Amino acid sequence: MKNYIVQWGWFVSLLFIFARCSSSANKDIIVAPSELIYSVNQLTIEEGQKASSIAPLLKGTPPFTFSVSNNPATSQIVIDNQGIISVLENITAGTYAVSVTASNSTNRATFPSVFTVNVKKKILPPSALAYTPNQLTLDFGAVGNSTAPSIQGTAPFTFGMTANPQTDKISINNQGVIAVATGLETGTYKISVSAKNDAGNVSFNDTFSVVVKPSPPSNLTYSPNTVEINAGTAVTSSLPSIQGTLPITYTMTTSPVTDKISIGNNGTISVASTLTAGTYNVNVTAKNEASTITFNNVFSVTVKSTNTPASPPSSLSYSPKILTIEQGKAGSSAAPTISGTSPFTFAIGSNNTANGQISINATTGVVSAGANTPTGTYMLTITAGNSAGMATFMGALTVVVNAPVVAVSFAKDIQPFLQVCGGCHSYNQYAAAKANIDNMLNRVQRAQGSGGFMPQGGSPLSKTQIDLLKKWVDDGLKE
Predict the structure, then answer these.
(1) d(Cα 107, Cα 100) in Å, to the nearest integer?
(2) Phi/psi at 147 (nearest 5 deg)?
(3) Using CB atoms within 10 A of its CB, is residue 451 exposed (0-12), middle (13-18) or buried (19+)?
(4) If we measure between CA atoms, which residue out of 358, 407, 408, 363 comes closest to residue 379?
(5) How far apart are CA 150 and CA 253, in angstroms?
(6) Bridge partners of 110?
(7) Could you tell me the sign of the dihedral formed by the alpha carbons of 31, 34, 40, 45, in that order?
């Protein structure tokens, strides 16, 4: 019994020693890093910003050390000993895949693309908008454009503008170019430009100006620019034509000097009946805010002495000698040329008036035919008179009134013979015929029996029918 107890004691002692050895061995095992996890596995920032992740979860035996590699490569993403990833402020825009390597005393493990950094390009608001040059100077009536402006900030930009004073003749395009349309009134326009991007809308007040200068008077003309009158007769010129910025005021001088010729506010020249015989050249000065311009010898007046006998009317002539109109439309001739002493009066022979539809201007000699003048040919006898007598000019002008031309229509003129020839391809229907008229004209004019000839297997269209097709085209393919 005593030996049994001793042996059992030895056995218990051995078990105790074995258990202690086993526990000591377990304490010395180092577990490799594994299953690295960031609970939030990405950062999104803007250029110029700094940011950091939270510390990751990692299995294995600490302590750990960490390193990173980035794709694309950058030195602006770093990691500390707790595995916290930090993004530095000089990183450029882009998306970076971050791989983390974790190490402990005996092992290391790499966790590819375990974290993502998104760096958005920083959007800067518009600033420092400038035009070079910053002024556009134009003559009145001219058009022009600015250069495109320089501007700082993040593109793309959109542009708007306001003008002071307001006008719809100044606009701005998507490149910021300012355009001036014709018709902008004279003056100085201050332009404020607004530039907008995703960061905001910024106004640049009075950043550009448009100056429209008045145009000086030019090209002053009178028509006619010469008058010839008998002594004791008063006359007024026509209204002159002139270019330049309104308003324009007028003054005049004459050679020789006289106070019997004057000029009105609208530039018309008036000659008093008391002006003595002679020839007077008139110089007209036109003035506006741009300049004062003198137009020398722009008008002349010849006053004939009453002692000189007047010449009777002669050599009346119209050019052209034939006035041709279409019934339903009115028309007028040119004024005739005539020799003799003016002024003249004109009349038409009573048998030439076509029931009052043909008339003559008693002062100018212009012949007019009304819209209701019957068709026919009218040879007119014109009588001209002045202080020296009367003269008759047989057949001085011929008026020809033609019947109205009736436009060709599909239903009335084209469809009847298309139906007779077979109505191929549904060309006897208006829409099909209109859409295919060029092909139809080409094929109906081919030789019978040749490839593509129309109407297939039928007789050729007559020249009259082909001409009707062509006139249908000329008249606008009316239905």
Answers:
(1) 14
(2) -80, 165
(3) exposed
(4) 358
(5) 55
(6) 101
(7) positive
For residue 151, the SS3 value is strand
Residues paired with 358 in a beta bridge:
369
Which residue shows structure tokens 């003129």? Answer: 413
Tokens of 84: 């916290």
Token pair in block for residue 206 = 């009075």
Which of helix, strand or coil describes residue 423? Answer: coil
Q: Which long-range contacts (CB under 8 A, 24 or more apart) does 439-443 make?
A: 440/469, 441/466, 441/469, 441/470, 441/473
Distance CA 189, CA 163 (A): 6
Instruction: Cite the beta strand spans of 387-452 per DSSP E.
Output: 389-402
The amino acid occupying position 205 is: N
Distance CA 430, CA 411 (A): 8
Q: For tokens 């002669």, name the residue.
A: 314
Q: Is 200 helix (H, G, I), strand (E, B) or coil?
A: strand
Q: Is the peptide bond before 247 cis (omega within 30 degrees of 0)?
A: yes
Which has the minimum average pLDDT: 263-267, 386-390, 472-476? 472-476
User: How far is the C-alpha of 29 from the C-alpha of 60, rounded, in Å?
Assistant: 11
The residues with which 389 forms a beta bridge, in sequence order, are 386
Residues 61 and 89: their CA atoms lie apart, in Å, by 34
- For the stretch 400-431, pLDDT in tens is 999 887 788 888 888 888 776 654 567 778 88
Q: Are strands 135-139 and 200-213 parallel, antiparallel or unpaired?
A: parallel
- Distances in Å between the Cα of 90 and the Cα atoms of 27, 47, 83, 94, 401 are 46, 7, 21, 12, 90
The tokens for 248 are: 């324009």
Tokens of 261: 């010729």
Residues 6+ apart with CB under 8 A from 306: 230, 231, 232
Q: Which residue has the tokens 């005393």?
A: 105
- For residue range 346-390, list pLDDT tens digits in order: 999 866 677 789 999 999 999 999 999 999 999 999 999 999 999
